Automatic annotation (TrEMBL):
It comes from Yoonia vestfoldensis. This is Outer membrane protein beta-barrel domain-containing protein. It comes from the Bacteria. The keyword Signal applies. Keywords: Signal. Residues 1-20 form the signal peptide.
Length: 196
């Protein structure tokens, strides 16, 4: 549902003029992403090109998570950072962005695959991975704007465990083969931004 709403907002923003972003403008914002609450800052190199940095975190979820044929009962600690270059090709509210995601996210707990159960950790295979998004930025007041992104982190997940039992290692290997079949992870975020 969140992805659908963010996509609808992005499509609407494509028809709207972008919030005024002069060369040298500095912005700061607060929001929420799929990796927790976010604090972001930006600098406008020129009206159609800007740079952004984000720090995300503050979400911890205790639950049972299903990944392919493996169930993980434990805690997901979501956090990370990102640096992005934003390009506004039509000089309106729509943008394409690319950069790097720095992961501080993992899921720890009890893994169950078939009849095998073991303690382990699930994390991104790459701690630093490409981040590709599309999104919008549209003004709603003097200096204020609504900003949103939807996209992917180009990295699969990988499970690990300190348990050296051969049966566990075989199950772990099977889990990682399944996880490698999904080479990207979804990303979404929305923020209120002030520019001066």
């Amino acid at each position: 549902m969140a992805f659908r709403n963010l996509t609808a907002l992005a499509l609407c923003a494509m028809a709207m003029p972008a919030a005024a972003q002069d060369r040298g403008a500095v912005s700061a914002g607060l929001g929420v992403t799929s990796f927790g609450y976010s604090l972001e800052g930006g600098y406008q190199l020129r009206p159609t090109l800007g740079l952004r940095g984000m720090i995300m975190g503050g979400f911890s979820i205790d639950d049972t998570f299903d990944y392919e044929d493996t169930a993980v009962t434990g805690t997901a600690d979501l956090a990370g950072g990102a640096v992005l270059a934003d390009y506004y090709p039509l000089a309106n509210g729509w943008r394409m962005s690319g950069g790097l995601f720095f992961s501080n996210t993992d899921v720890t707990g009890s893994f169950t695959q078939g009849a095998v159960t073991y303690d382990g950790k699930l994390a991104f295979e790459k701690d630093v991975a490409p981040l590709l998004t599309t999104g919008f930025r549209t003004g709603f007041g003097s200096g204020w704007a609504l900003s949103g992104d939807i996209g992917v982190i180009v990295s699969s997940l990988q499970a690990s465990s300190g348990n050296t039992d051969p049966t566990v290692q075989t199950a772990l290997s099977d889990t990682n083969v399944d996880l490698a079949d999904v080479p990207v992870f979804p990303f979404a975020g929305i923020a209120v931004v002030y520019t001066h």
